[in-house]
Amino acid sequence: MLEGKAMVKETDMSPKMQIHAMASASQALDLYDVYDCISIAAHIKKEFDSVYGNGWQCVVGSNFGCYFTHSSGTFIYFALETLNFLIFKGTSS
Amino acid sequence: MLEGKAVIEDTDMPDKMQIQAMASAYEALDLYDVFDCTSIAAHIKKEFDTKYGSGWQCVVGSSFGCFFTHSKGTFVYFTLETLNFLIFKGASYLI
């Protein structure tokens, strides 16, 4: 992986899951172009759905703001290269 | 409201809910600065949680990409002024 080190801005995830999130992001950046935010987000979301169960959401971009409700222990927001990554498991009700 | 007309890019929401989404966005842009994406998103999400039950998510910005699973009939993506708005109700289980 050629990417620099990811910087976690905010999270309530376990350290192990955090590492997985950042590894998944690095992997996605190897596979897709940095401008293809949707494919990058798709890669991460699908991996998390597979490993930790359905319901994950992923936002990738250089300029965005969100407001959301998430399940406990499933939220991480970090920066990697020029992009910001937000991963969380949404709660339906 | 001084804003221009919103343009819907993609949706599976009923018409009435679409109108509510755009009205919430207009209202948020009156209340907050265009650079304060998080407050704008918060305003819209809270309104939808109140009216249509909890679990709504809202993304606002000029440059972002998402991949998500949403409940049926709860998704709208539109542009208004310089911002893009994504509103959906997250689903924990695939139906």
UniProtKB/TrEMBL annotation, chain A:
GO terms, molecular function? dynein intermediate chain binding
The alphabetized list of GO BP terms reads: microtubule-based process
This protein's source sits in the domain of life called Eukaryota
Q: Which SMART domains match?
A: Dynein_light
The protein's location, in the record's own words, is: Cytoplasm, Cytoskeleton
Which keywords are on file for this protein?
A: Cytoplasm, Cytoskeleton, Dynein, Microtubule, Motor protein
Please list which residues make up the signal peptide: none
Gene3D superfamilies registered for this protein in UniProt: Protein Inhibitor Of Neuronal Nitric Oxide Synthase
InterPro entries assigned to the protein according to its UniProt record, in alphabetical order: DLC_sf, Dynein_light_chain_typ-1/2
A GO cellular component term found in this entry reads: microtubule
Membership in a protein family: Belongs to the dynein light chain family.
The name on file for this protein is Dynein light chain
TrEMBL record, chain B:
Q: GO cellular-component terms in the record?
A: cytoplasmic dynein complex; microtubule
What broad class describes the main subcellular location of this protein?
cytoplasm
Recorded GO terms, molecular function? dynein intermediate chain binding
The record's section on InterPro entries has:
DLC_sf, Dynein_light_chain_typ-1/2
Q: Which UniProt keywords apply?
A: Cytoplasm, Cytoskeleton, Dynein, Microtubule, Motor protein
One annotated GO biological process: microtubule-based process
Q: Which SUPFAM superfamilies match?
A: DLC (SSF54648)
Pfam families registered for this protein in UniProt: Dynein_light (PF01221)
Q: Where in the cell is it found?
A: Cytoplasm, Cytoskeleton
The family note in this entry says: Belongs to the dynein light chain family.
Name this polypeptide is given = Dynein light chain
**Organism (species):** Glycine soja (Wild soybean)
**Lineage start:** Eukaryota, Viridiplantae, Streptophyta, Embryophyta, Tracheophyta
